[in-house]
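[Meeting: bench + compute handoff]

Bench side (C.D.) handed over the final construct sequence. Compute side (W.E.) agreed to return the predicted structure before the next meeting so the bench team could plan truncations. Sequence as handed over:
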Amino acid sequence: MKVKDCKRVNVDTTVQTKEIRFPTDARLYDRMREVLVSAAKQAGIELRQSYARVGKKALRRQQNYGHAKQFKRMKRETKRLKTFLGRVTRDIERKMPPDDTRLTDNIGLAQTDISARKGQ
């Protein structure tokens, strides 16, 4: 191999797997809940429940029901995830100090996420 051959390299990435997922409502609810729980933990807020295990199960069920074309069950699990997010949000709102800007920003994002999908 010559040095001249290494000066310009063409890389074909079409066969590489991509770490891109479609942002479904259920995944957004679960991810926002995780962000809020970790932010509350950093702020020293003791939550009544973090919904870590049941949230993970509900998200998995929701995805499986969608794959199996069981859309009523899928919708029910999505609603459960939204409920978990709402409960965590309200719990943090009750317990957070008024001057914590990071938590306030995250709470605002969660409320927009919940209200944007109000009818679903």
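W.E. noted at the follow-up: The two ends are 61 Å apart (CA to CA). C.D. will use this when planning the next construct.
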